[in-house]
Amino acid sequence: MKHLLNITDLDTDEIHQVLELAQRQPSSLGCPLRSSEGTPIGAALIFEKPSNRTRHSMEIAVVQLGGHPIYTRGEEVGLDTREPVEDVARIMSGYHGLIAARVFKHGIVERLARASSVPVINMLSDFSHPLQGLADALTMVQEFGSLGGKTVAYVGDYNNVARSLGEICVILGAHYRLACPEGYDASSDELQRISSLGSGSIEQSSRPQEIVTGAHAVHTDTWVSMGQEAEKAQRLEIFGAFSVTAQMMALTASHSIFMHCLPAYRGYEVTAEVIDGSASRVIQQGHNRLHASRGVIAHMLGVKR
User: Fold this and answer.
1) 187 vs 193: CA distance, rounded Å
2) What is the pLDDT of residues 86-100, one digit of tens each?
3) Is the pTM of this model over 0.70?
4) Which residues are catalytic?
5) Domains in the chain, please, with CATH?
């Protein structure tokens, strides 16, 4: 049985399978979340952290594959407060064909997976965001045909989004460049780990203009993620030079694209001119969250490309 907690839970061929399944019409995937009697199979969607794109994309993906999504807020479940994570996983495994969780701590999804008898999908944790990484890769594949040999820049905080993006870029043969302030960057061990994942490469600098020069795609994310509100003033000061501007995009390759996982804060990590301009692919990227989620679920439940 397969779980998706990190991008690295998929090998290169499996990533290609997910991306191919994501681009197929839902009707061609059958109904892997429908029983032999024709009744929908449940999918438990646990949200410790609220979300717009994640909830809508996952619920629709489950329905498109014949299932019945059940949305549950974190306080309703009470992971490790009302009852142990392991008890929740074992009980929900008896009700559902799939468990997906969006949590604060990565250890929660790891424990869900160890105790569950059905596939578990990480919809976001403090360590990784594999569904976003797959949607990002899908967007770039749609744009460039493949990621092999492309240069992908990420400007900002080395967070869960940056980690999953880097993993999938290196696995698929892209050159991944990070521009992060000191103290908010990837460790040397982390750079070495990601470098070992595939035929691509990874490099890091605290100079964003250097990193985006010649890039085919430029990514960024909010400087203040959910749960970091107390650090806002400090972060805004530290990240001030890391805003993606039109001047920065002018250094990139011709026909380059801009990407952001959203929500975006115009005037901070990106200017309105860039995110609302012709190079922006953020809406396509957001729509691809649905297709990537559907591809992941189909793959986890045994649908072949």
Assistant:
1) 10
2) 999 999 999 999 999
3) yes
4) 102, 129, 132, 221, 261, 289
5) 31-128 (3.40.50.1370), 132-286 (3.40.50.1370)
